[in-house]
Amino acid sequence: MQATAEQPSMIRWYYEGLSAGVYRAIKCADCGKLTFPPTGCCEHCGSWNVEGVELSGEATLLFASHNITPACHPRFEKIAPYVYGHIQLKEGPIAQAIVRGVDPTPEDLQALFEKGPVPVQAATLQMDDLPVIVFDIKA
Predict the structure, then answer these.
(1) Rounded Cα–Cα distance for residues 33 and 11 (Å)
(2) Based on the structure, what is the number of domains in the chain?
(3) Which of 27, 51, 55, 90 is deepest in the core (most CB within 10 A)?
């Protein structure tokens, strides 16, 4: 997909991918960097000369914390409490997302912290309104 000034089509493309279990970003033809989640232009240099790419879904959880109470958006109230983390995608970008496979307790978060960065895999969680990307801790 080649991006244009029609940002809503880029957003639709991203969410259609999530619904199908496909994780997408944009790659800038000018600076070569990835923007995730995708936007209408490159977040690094501002170029509109971008194209859609698929991501592997492989990543590393850098650190995690519990969510705030109440949840940051009403769509997440049904799944709260949950763990939220900073994840570095295999392809480079760092994303923030829900992390599954660890309980949001101080003890479990401490144990996860002591393990250091851990591998995670992208997954799609279908909410009432939109799908969201989440990451599952690999065993």
Answers:
(1) 19
(2) 2
(3) 55
